[in-house]
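Re: beginner question about structure tokens

> Can someone show what the tokenized structure looks like for a real chain? I only ever see the sequence side.

Sure, here's an example I had lying around. Input first:
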Amino acid sequence: MTSALSSRSATLQIVSIVCFSFIGYLGVGITLAVIPGLVHERLGYSALLAGLVISLQYLVTLGVRPLAGRLIDSAGPKRAIIHGLAGCACSGLLMALAALWLDRPPLSLGLLLLSRVALGGALSLIASASITWGIGQLGGSGTGRVISWNGIACYAGIAFGAPLGTWLTGRYGLSSMGLSVLLAALAGLALAGAKTGVPPQIGERLGFMKVLGRVTPHGLALALGTLGYGTIAAFITLYYGSHGWAHAEYCLTAFGFSFIAARLLFARAIDRFGGSPVAMVSLLVEAIGLALLWAAPDRLATMAGASLTGFGFSLVFPALGVEAVKLAPAASRGSTIGAYSLFLDLALGICGPLMGLIIANQGFRSVFLLCTVAAFGALALTLTLHRRSGPAAGLATLEGKP
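And the corresponding structure tokens:
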């Protein structure tokens, strides 16, 4: 009974922190189902540019990672989250302003781009700081659970945000999309200000580039496994539109709920079996889901493929992340998480323009085939890394030793 209560208390502690990631990614979800169609159909720009607008957020997040990691390690995760939520508020305000000038496409597009820049910088702080804050409270042994719950919060935000954004814009107009992001961020700021933070870790701190070198192999596997998600996020609404199908937002919701279900059902799988074995099984399931998307003949099969992809992709980040966090000392934990997450940003950043270019030349189905191949490539790389590592590798660093 005591163990169960302790586990429940730890989970509640984690949830009270990763809720900030939920708020940040709620802003992503609210805009995700609306912006591609807004740029392509309302403003009259190409599918390639629509994909670039979505990907800009991830490119900015990638560029800000080193600064975010240093801020988290030196000032503490609470300060970083407050800065991040302020950035989300600015992003929402800029989105609301963009909706006021739809009759002037260049101005509206410019405001949307600035909004994506603000959101990208904000998320680089919020996601890494939430993980660092959670590990700081639970200790290194809670790394897998903290990363898993943080992911649940992120994709719950996307899953709830996508239909919410569609409903808001349909009922109250496009400006409501930005205003809802602004209000959510302001609520998050009030909540963060009332919480007690954790102090920065004391000890050896590695330079960001040194940390980056250590986590690169696992990061590359993560990047390959992320292309499928990035493609679904950026282009599923346009893919549905190309077939004349309605309710693309529910495909994103199916992905998000499957993602969450996998993390809830297999919350302790990483602790029990290890990061690399869980990552390999997850990548295999993801690859099968992407292959189904490639071959899907109708809307129902497409939704099933997206759902299976979300279920497989769910544990890829925490499973590989547990292995990556072992490779650096505790005082560099913020930088380690930032360096590892950089590969997620990189994959999502290049996904929009790359897949948009392929779609323009080869059509939509070809990108799902490419993502299937990439997922199998990630599986092969993870298997190679697992075979090269010893069973006790990284245990000392998990305890805070380099």
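Each token stands for a local structural state, so reading them left to right follows the chain. The longest helix spans residues 208-243.
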